[in-house]
């Protein structure tokens, strides 16, 4: 969808065939992204899904969070620990391992939120196809 731009409408069957994703699986993903406000749907003839914003205005982080929830590599890196200041191990401020994973979480979140759909499309090799094996 990002290859076409925000104004273009894509049908589920077309996307599934182009990206080699099972239709039922893709339907669930698209509904999730619509509920998150990243897509909109159009009914009727010529209907389908559209990006809610231009590809450069949608981050990979928004997509990952909508589908999988916030990136949390381990409980010590979670938001509850950040608010309370107490790790599951009982060490105030968290243990060394928890601090390493919080740093990892911060770095991953910065990378995901700083990468747009337009950036992803720009990184695709020209002339190649993306393959999704499930």
Characterization of the model:
With 134 residues, this protein is mainly α. It has two domains: 53 residues, Arc Repressor Mutant, subunit A, CATH 1.10.10.10; 70 residues, no CATH class. The protein has six helices and two strands, in the order H-H-E-E-H-H-H-H. The chain has a two-stranded antiparallel ribbon. Helix 3 crosses helix 5. The longest helix is centred in the C-terminal third of the chain and has 18 residues. The chain is elongated, with a radius of gyration of 18 Å.
Secondary structure blueprint with pairings:
Elements: H1 12-19, H2 23-35, E1 39-42, E2 48-51, H3 60-68, H4 79-84, H5 96-113, H6 117-123
Antiparallel strand pairs: 1-2
Query: What is the beta-strand fraction?
Result: 5-15%
End-to-end CA span: 20 Å
- Helix-strand pattern: HHEEHHHH
Which secondary-structure class do the elements indicate?
Answer: mainly alpha
Q: What is the mean pLDDT?
A: 86
What is the general shape? elongated
Strand order in the sheet with the most strands: 1-2
- Please give the share of residues in helix: 40-55%
Given as residue ranges, the uncertain stretches (5+ residues, pLDDT < 50) are none
Tell me the radius of gyration: 18 Å
Number of helices: 6
Note the main sheet: 2 strands, antiparallel
Number of strands: 2
What's the domain count? 2
Brief sketch in words of this structure:
The protein is 46% helix and 6% strand.
């Amino acid at each position: 969808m990002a290859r076409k731009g925000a104004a273009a409408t894509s049908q589920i069957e077309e996307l599934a065939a182009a990206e080699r994703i099972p239709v039922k699986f893709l339907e669930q993903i698209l509904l999730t992204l619509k509920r998150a406000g990243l897509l909109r749907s159009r009914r009727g003839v010529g209907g389908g899904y559209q990006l809610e914003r231009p590809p450069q205005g949608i981050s990979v982080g928004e997509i990952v969070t909508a589908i999988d929830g916030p990136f949390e590599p381990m409980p010590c890196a979670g938001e509850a620990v950040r608010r309370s200041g107490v790790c599951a191990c009982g060490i105030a401020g968290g243990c060394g391992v928890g601090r390493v994973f919080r740093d990892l979480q911060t770095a991953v979140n910065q990378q995901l939120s700083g990468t747009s759909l337009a950036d992803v499309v720009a990184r695709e090799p020209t002339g190649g196809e993306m393959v999704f094996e499930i």
